[in-house]
Amino acid sequence: MRRILVMVVFLLSIPMILGFPVPAHGFQAPAVWVDANGNAHSSPPEAPPAAGTVEAAPPYASLSGTPPASGSGVTTPEAAGTAPANSYLLWQDPGEGAFSVSLPMGWRISGGTVRSTKFEAHYLVRAQSPDGGAKLFMDDPGILMREVPNQGTEAMGVKIGQELPSGLGSSLIVEPYRPGDQFAAEYVKQILCPSATMILGGPIADQTQALNAQFGPLGQLGGKALRADAGELAFKCGARTGYVYVITVQAMQPDGPVAIWAVYRIAGYLASPADSPAAAAAVNQMLGTFHMNQTWLQNYAKESGDTAGIVVRESNAVTQTTIDREKAINAGIQASIQSSRHNSASIPNGAAGATSSASSTNANGHNNAQIPTKNVCDDLGRCQTVDAGIANWWSDCSGIFYQGPESGSPPPASQSACWSKGR
User: Whose C-alpha in 106, 202, 260, 376 is 20 to 30 A from the C-alpha of 10?
Assistant: First the structure.
């Protein structure tokens, strides 16, 4: 029992960044307003908030409710709410000030830091588009840590799926380790959307490699072997589409049988097809701007007895690799935008099969009045208005469309775990 307790403390000292149902004890973060200057206010102004403020709305218990109708299912980035960078505002954790994220202006936002135990801090974010057609999440206090089955659990007669006390006021589930994409698929079917179909996805090889390159030395410093796996998937949930991103981490004893693993980060969305572009942009923005308060993180590490500072370094490694991935995604979007501009310059307005849009606006907020456009939809029914002069468009797992190679093959697998051809 002692060695299990040590392993649990080691993993619990890694700040978890999970995501989904609001805790059963009814946690409700107080409203926080962040103005255009970055100043936080504990209560809203007397008048409705002006442009440049975001309200932390009361959390909703589930993303599984049917959203209101929101359009025909084919939309331009502007209509979907894919806003330029200056339409995102900083939202700060109202609970302990542990973290901040950037989210679309005008969305209703709630959440904050929740502690299941003294050493288990969860960083909740819930956000909903103004029409309710898109809902995104981060963190889930309901996801328990796991212990990999071993000789000790077998000797005690513990079966897979059974809970054991951790010795820290929480429980462990005895289950084999699963990489991020495998856990995401299980989570979708068990929690997010039991009726999910067309589940597509897999591991994110580049980020997994980057994480393990940094986690290896950190694990050795703490006398443990660490393994991390990042994955993502997309799916259909009735008339809606969904996306889930997960990082799982396992800590093992190099000279012993005990291995403990946890979901380190989970985030995603559910949205109507028309609102999927807005949801995809918002999730990428949230993941790419997640920032831990370093003073809070250092204090948290001390509370956990982390004298070597492993907590801080692990948290920052996960955050930085996620930011790097989002930068790569944004670079791909910008490359498609630039290519579209170059390509459209040589295409007569009103080209065959194209629909000219006098007010089309791309994801970067630039007016493309002279670019002939067309609507493309992927296998999950997510649609977007794109440059008609480019033949091959592909959506990534989150639902963002990119220009594909002239050969008709998908973009590099390292950029997404589930490319879907736009038609």
Answer: 202
pLDDT digits (tens, 9 = 90+) for 328-357: 887 777 766 666 555 544 433 322 222 333
Backbone angles phi, psi at 273, to 5 degrees: -55, -40
Helix-helix angle 294-303:310-344, to 10 degrees: 150
DSSP alpha helices (H): ranges in 151-308? 151-155, 180-187, 205-221, 276-289, 294-303
Kindly provide the residue ranges of all beta strands, DSSP E only, lying in 216-293, ordered along the sequence: 225-237, 240-252, 259-271, 291-292
Is residue 250 classed as helix, strand or coil in its secondary structure? strand
pLDDT band at 93 (very low <50, low <70, confident <90, very high): very high
Structure token digits, residue 124: 């909740």
* pLDDT tens string 363-384: 444 444 567 899 999 999 999 8
CA distance 417 to 48: 42
Poorest-confidence range of 93-102, 163-172, 261-270? 163-172
What is the C-alpha separation between 322 and 172, in angstroms, rounded?
Answer: 27
Judge whether residue 32 has pLDDT over 70.
no
Whole-angstrom distance, CA of residue 269 vs CA of residue 398: 9
Classify residue 104 by burial, with Cβ atoms within 10 Å: 0-12, 13-18, 19+. Answer: buried
Q: Are 380 and 418 in contact (CB under 8 A)?
A: no
- Could you tell me which residues come within 8 angstroms of residue 263 by beta carbon, excluding any fewer than 6 positions away? 16, 18, 140, 143, 183, 246, 247, 248
What is the residue-wise DSSP string for 339-360? HHHHHHTTS-TT-TT-EE-TT-
Token representation of residue 279:
């949801």
Angle of the 310-344 helix axis to the 205-221 helix axis, nearest 10: 160
Q: Using CA atoms in the order 375, 413, 282, 331, what is the torsion angle rounded to 10 degrees?
A: -90
- 311 Cα distance to chain centroid: 21
Q: Where are the beta strands (DSSP E) in 301-400?
A: 355-356, 372-377, 383-387, 393-395
Q: Which residues, other chains included, contact 62 with Cβ-Cβ below 8 Å and sequence gap of 6+?
A: 21
> What pairing do the DSSP bridges indicate for beta strands 393-395 and 372-377?
unpaired
Say if residues 140 and 245 touch (Cβ distance below 8 Å). Answer: no
At 140, the amino acid letter reads D
The pLDDT of residue 332 is 72
Query: In which region does residue 62 sit, left (phi positive, over 0), alpha (psi from -120 to 50) or beta (all else)?
Result: beta
Q: What is the pTM of this model?
A: 0.76
